[in-house]
């Protein structure tokens, strides 16, 4: 139900970070997460709500890799 | 590694008993639509949009209250764009603006701080709608309001929570075979909560991300589980969703809010399905209690049956006649990505 | 110096406003006569249109309301296969408007008119109470270069070309309002030269439309409805910059529905698609042009998605607003 996008933390100043979403820089509140510059966060309505393990493209590959076992289960 | 082609082939070629899969997240609904997922899978796999859009399930009395506030002198309603088109019993906020009311669309509730500080003679009210994803943001806002001693900014809340709604659907509609569990709500609440639901109701719950590939992968996982008679929670959005969720966000929710029964537009009252400000924070409340109120379902509206997957929108007597995107009667038509909104766009053939 | 109500009195101040700003910039033989109406030489058939412009903020990255007012009318004429010749400009100016801003708006209009090869030959100013906003109406006359260019004229097997990246004007305007920093600039531009290039290269253009309010999606629906045909487009062929894509992701917007001020579609016979594309791409406003789809028998607008799914592209209901769900 909620639009949220991944972005890269550029710099942090107190509770606010500059986050880069495909060259769009937004001020994002980072009170709810532990982050450092260079981390990827998921932002929703001006707040970072999550620190991401990796970028989305990489993740899709991992999900597909994980589903491999199902193929064998159903073979 | 399994390929996307293989996943799509399996989903397309499925020819067993009809499977009904409910997604309960508006952004999943939107992604399914934008990626044309329905056209890629077997007609035997039906995707049903459940009660997952906070704007759509917000009762009309809430919109009425916003309209009233926005029309008062020296008052201004701050809102997400989503709420602008939603009709109350009299009008929408867009129509209220045309009649002279003050409303501003914001991207973040936190932007309200600066606005309230700049004009202390105006009473600002943020239209605080949302599920667990958005509620922590209001908590952060309340922290700021307190810290900066802002006295002219309050919330009008309509904050729903997901698990009671899922339980309600499971209890009341046995025909749903599996659930695509929400991605961003799960970021906050964690995916462990679905394990219990999966066991109790014996249905697969698969957490999915929002790319078309994510959704296809999750549908494939559900298909595999159903074929092999399993009903498990599976997290296919591990990059963002953990077992326990975001604990800091949960604690800020607990700090300010407590559970209450609430009315869901088109469905009715669901026990302990919403959050309200705790009594000690009532000074931040712009009058969110509508206890005396019971949502009236408009005559003829069958949104409840649509949301529960019992009928398709064209079976509703109001569909595309009395109820259209420009004049939405029921919640499913309110958002253009609600299930009736999508069917409306697709009326006149499947292409 | 600011505009006050006396600038609308019809007296001395009105006259100096007209001389000091508008005549200074728009300077041409016809306008300089200050007659009640312009007397023009027009041969053959003409296209004639009008449009009014209100935009907040008045100045934005890539242009201002004046540039919009000239380009908007120039583009509407161009889309009919006409060469824009003359414009009129009516200004409704609120008291409190900064003279320097007004001067800048007029300066930009002059430049845009020069580029598009049109003359601003008549005008009007009115001053009203308010808080410093300017509203502009422009009307324009163009000479028809190619007959029969019409929204009703698309036929099966025609190809659809889009002149460049989507969503830039809308995103530029909204970035400021939403406090998001980027370098997105409005695409506001006169499209008369692209049209001239298409016609010069012998393209038998069936229909042209600029994708302004309501975006590409709305224009394609108008094509489908008016020409009684189906429009098929391919998602992967639609050019969108990385920055606009990110901007749309943040706010939950769909670039297909976002306003452009310097982008057009051209519907041409299928066999001329490549030639038309080459002509567009040689123009500086068409560098990113693409063939995005074609016309078939039927009705509606359909898109083949990147995942090879199919999706209906409906018109926009209400205003495109940032959303969270």
TrEMBL record, chain A:
PROSITE patterns with a match to the protein in the record: HUPF_HYPC
Superkingdom of origin: Bacteria
Pfam families: HupF_HypC
Any one Gene Ontology BP term: protein maturation
One Gene Ontology MF term: carbon dioxide binding
Family designation: Belongs to the HupF/HypC family.
Protein name per the record: Hydrogenase expression/formation protein HypC
Organism name: Muricomes intestini
Lineage, broadest ranks: Bacteria, Bacillati, Bacillota, Clostridia, Lachnospirales
Automatic annotation (TrEMBL), chain B:
GO biological process, one term: protein maturation
Keyword terms of this UniProt record: Iron, Metal-binding
UniProt GO MF annotations: 4 iron, 4 sulfur cluster binding; carbon monoxide binding; iron ion binding
Superkingdom of the organism of origin: Bacteria
Family the entry assigns: Belongs to the HypD family.
Alphabetical list of NCBIfam families matching this protein: hypD
Protein name per UniProt: Hydrogenase expression/formation protein HypD
UniProtKB/TrEMBL annotation, chain C:
GO biological process: protein maturation
Domain PurM-like C-terminal: 156-302
Domain PurM-like N-terminal: 35-144
Parts forming coiled coils: none
InterPro entries: HypE, PurM-like_C_dom, PurM-like_C_sf, PurM-like_N, PurM-like_N_sf
Recorded superkingdom: Bacteria
Listed CDD domains: HypE (cd02197)
Protein family per UniProt: Belongs to the HypE family.
This protein's name: Hydrogenase expression/formation protein HypE
Organism expressing this protein natively: Muricomes intestini
